[in-house]
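User: Hey, my collaborator sent me this sequence without any context and asked if I could get a structure. I don't really work with proteins. Can you help?
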Amino acid sequence: MNKLLYSVLCLILITPFGCIKEAEDDYSTIIFFIGDVKKNNKEIGIGDIILQNDIIATGAQSSCDIKIGGSIIRVKEKSNVKMAELYRKDDIERTSVDLDVGKLLCKAKKLSKSENFLVKTPTAVAGVRGTKFTVEADTQKTSRIKVFNGNVTVVKRVKQLDEAVIGKIMETAPSLASEEKVIITEKEVKHTEKIVEQAIEKEQKINKDIDAATLKVISETNREDVLVANKEIQKFKIEDFAEENNEMITVKEKPKEVIAEIKKVVILEKKQPVPEGRLLITRYEIYFIKNEKPLWEGKIINPPIQKDNKIYIASGDYVFCASIDGPVLWKRNIKNDGKVEVIGDKLLVFSEGKAKKLDLITGL
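Assistant: No problem. I've predicted the 3D structure and written it out in structure-token form, which is a compact way to encode the shape of the chain:
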């Protein structure tokens, strides 16, 4: 397929209609999402503003990208996140995110000493100055933090320690470096809480100032109980988490023109819904849009093939047949190499060098 025809196809597929109003404040906004995502139990849209204390919840096979100042986080599927602090004044940013359960991919901007970026789980607090890392929290309150680039300071989240004390502890706590990870369990944290509680009670008999007593206890308590001990930090190889690392690279703000086209197709699908949804092909990506939201995103590996006012394209997990103006005629969930060929009345879909034959009309 020649480049001119491919460019024409892309223009046809990404040019429905509609005009989109820009968000009034883009400090903290939803810059993209896939599937079932809610903010405070309500449906969201690309460009929606996120405010302090807003809660983002994602369903199965869903995700949400949020821009916070110069940083971006991706909320993965089956996650529940509270935006605990969103502060910006002049050039100063302070962000705190509470991850109750689920997973976050974080790309934090380089911060000054007066700024912070914190991710809290039920059992851990991770603070950064500019790095790429992931944080997971499961239903058993086990926390997993992996650093792909940069440094992340991690401490156990102890109930007796307030924000000010946590901040002081993190100033001297050891950091995880690139390709290092740590696992913190609820059992470990409860053990630490018991030690701290007993020490504070003892100290308060001498010093009635609870804040001063707490600080003294922390300074004197065994660091390996309160902090993450060096022996708990494990090395890992990037190649062991290649898929996660590759996804981390893709976590970035999409071009404004692409977001505008996605919004246009969402509006078109709302006004003129089609049974199988619509396909949007841009220069580098493919988007499947149905029920007024993006449900899937894939990379363009090879240009689409056109035949009889229909296009055929494959990427990763799916094969699509769509009419030239966007409505999907059929789609199939087939792992593939992104290569398709039309032979007679059959579509050949290639996976690991082997071809699977599909009927051009039905996809069967």
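In plain terms: Residues 1-24 have pLDDT under 50 and may be disordered. You can pass these tokens on to your collaborator as they are.
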